[in-house]
Structures are given as C-alpha cells and as structure tokens.
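User: Please fill in residues for this 63-position structure.
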C-alpha cells in the first residue's frame, strides 16, 4: 500500500493482524473497519451502512 499513511500491521504487503492476508484497508478485522466510511460500500461495516442510511433519510436524500 502506498500513500501518506502506513499501517503498523502491514509487513511486506501482508496484514499481521488478520492472519497474514494481503493488506486490504477496511477488510473485516482491519483496525480501520467500522471506524471510517469507505467509498466501496462492501468495505463498510453494518453500523456505518446504517448510519449512512439514517443520515440520508434524515435530510430527505439531499446534501
């Protein structure tokens, strides 16, 4: 993973926190899972999806 942020659990592209699976920020078990909203909806936790749905319903879908 390249960019300005580096995960301390990523070692040579593998996640030491999630059974040495390839690093995929936001995957279930990742330290980011459930704490941030991702552009790919399948990476968002059920709680995040629920909050997004409630927010959208609360303002009539308009920003």
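Assistant: Residues filled in for all 63 positions:
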């Amino acid at each position: 993973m390249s960019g300005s942020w580096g995960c301390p659990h990523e070692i040579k592209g593998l996640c030491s926190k999630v059974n040495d699976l390839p690093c995929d920020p936001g995957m279930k078990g990742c330290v980011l899972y459930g704490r941030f909203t991702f552009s790919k909806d399948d990476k968002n936790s059920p709680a995040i999806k629920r909050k997004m749905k409630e927010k959208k319903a609360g303002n009539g879908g308009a920003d």
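For context: The radius of gyration is 14 Å.
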